[in-house]
Write a structure and sequence with these properties.
CATH topology of the largest domain: Nucleotidyltransferase, domain 5
Strand order of the largest sheet: 5-4-3-2-1-6-8-7
CATH superfamily of the largest domain: ATPase, nucleotide binding domain
Shape: globular
Number of helices: 15
Structural class: alpha/beta
Bound molecules: adenosine-5'-diphosphate, acetylphosphate, magnesium ion
Order of helices and strands: EEEEEHEEHHEHHHEEEHHHHHEHHHEEH
Distance between the termini: 23 Å
Helix content: 25-40%
Number of strands: 14
CATH architecture of the largest domain: 2-Layer Sandwich
Radius of gyration: 21 Å
């Protein structure tokens, strides 16, 4: 379809895709390929109001997943003739502060950054390679999760570690979820009827990965994820903050090598480690049934958020709004209540009826006239990726 950008968001075991015409605000098709590499794969493709097209079979790797996506477009429509393919790339390091056209140099750079995002970058590259082969004459755009976070000041991105690590190895805080932060902060300004340049915000992106970001005048000034997406908040399967001595301790007392420790903190940590499930709905259900592990997991999870809210309030000095987004932030009123519990003296309160109401809309869940607005804004990374790609290929400011 003319004017449409194909957005690809490749995750460790899934591919989200959407066809978006930014100028025409038209989004005719989207889909999800799930459980890539597992026994029972599944693709669900939506085209307009037609019943969804579903394919259930194994997708051994991301190449097969993308081939299945192309087959879904061929079978269920619309005809696929994108003006660009835009890719979410998780780690852009210090090099990419904005979206770029993909060429061989950009591919090499994404590859070089893979050790910093071993779960994400190689898969993002697989998506780029397949899309280049499928649409050889169409521009490919990379939109980086780190880009929005490159505005961090040195005192926020500098770790107090040896100079050699910082200078030769490039060790620093990068931060992630930037595409989501860019989108929800702009929407927050619209919802509040204020100029983004005059707002101090805290974005709580609570999905499978989770992060907190302090934003002043539209620029990130601190964020909880670090060199990699492991630091900060408690996540579905990631521990977030732990004592950096932990891997060394495990090596000494249990013979665990650094790689295995990092893998466990990333894949077997978080809610999964504490409650036996990394899925918030499941953890809430278990807690409601009296499961003490699940209750502790939730207390640890929400306390960590509250700690970051306090810290970022202190850094910002004045706070206009807190934004909840991501699957948990958007849909779990209890997490919002527990995370903001007892912050009334900071001007942060919830309106219980608004907070508990089920809605997919952008909305305030604080009382009218609150000192700090608490907003729920469904994130839309696909739209933001398409918007930035559209701006790039049309030579506009993103
Ligand atoms: N109604 C709900 N109540 C509580 N948690 C929810 C609800 N809906 C989704 N979630 C949680 O959102 C998380 C997934 O977030 P999402 O942003 O979709 O993930 P991803 O980071 O992979 O994009 C899961 O933990 C899921 O349980
Ligand atoms: C960077 C990151 O954590 O991404 P996700 O939330 O998709 O895992
Ligand atoms: Mg996410």
């Amino acid at each position: 379809m003319a004017g449409h950008i194909l957005v690809l968001n490749t995750g460790s075991s899934s591919i989200k895709y959407e066809l978006v015409d930014v100028a025409g605000r038209d989004r005719p098709a989207r889909g999800l390929v799930e459980r890539i590499g597992e026994e029972r794969g599944r693709l669900v493709h939506h085209h307009g109001d037609a019943p969804p097209y579903v394919a259930e079979r194994p997708f051994p790797d991301h190449g097969e997943g993308l081939a299945a996506m192309l087959a879904a477009f061929a079978e269920a429509g619309p005809a696929l003739d994108p003006v660009a393919v835009a890719h979410r790339v998780v780690h852009g390091g210090a090099r990419f502060g904005r979206a770029v056209l993909v060429d061989d140099g950009v591919i090499a750079a994404i590859e070089e950054l893979a050790p910093l995002a071993p779960l994400h970058n190689p898969i993002n590259l697989a998506g780029i390679r397949v899309a280049r082969a499928a649409f050889p004459s169409v521009p490919q755009v990379a939109v980086f999760d780190t880009a929005f976070q490159l505005s961090l000041p040195p005192e926020a991105y500098t770790y107090a570690v040896p100079r050699d690590w910082r200078e030769r190895l490039g060790v620093r805080r990068f931060g992630f979820h930037g595409t989501s932060c860019a989108y929800v902060s702009r929407r927050a300004a619209a919802l509040l009827g204020r100029d983004l340049a005059e707002l101090n915000l805290i974005v709580l992106h609570l999905g499978n990965g989770a992060s907190a970001t302090a934003i002043a005048g539209g620029r990130s000034i601190d964020t909880s994820m670090g060199l990699t997406p492991l630091e900060g908040l408690v996540m579905g399967t990631r521990s977030g903050d732990v004592d950096p001595a932990l891997p060394g301790y495990l090596a000494r007392v249990d013979g665990l090598d650094a790689e295995s420790a990092e893998d466990a903190l990333g894949h077997a940590g978080g809610l999964l480690a504490l409650a036996g499930s990394g899925d918030m709905r499941e953890v809430r259900a278990r807690a409601a049934n009296g499961d003490e592990d699940a209750r502790l997991a939730l207390a640890v999870y929400t306390r960590r958020i509250r700690k970051y809210v306090g810290a970022y309030y202190a850094l910002l000095g004045r706070l206009d709004a807190i934004i909840f987004t991501g699957g948990v932030g958007e849909n779990d009123p209890q997490t919002r209540t527990e995370a903001l519990n007892n912050l009334g003296r900071l001007g942060i309160t919830l309106d219980p009826a608004r907070n508990d109401a089920t809605s997919q809309d952008e909305r305030a869940v604080s009382p009218d006239g609150s000192e700090v607005a608490v907003l729920v804004i469904p994130t839309d990374e696909e739209w933001e990726i398409a918007r930035q790609a559209h701006a790039l290929i049309n030579g506009e400011q993103p």
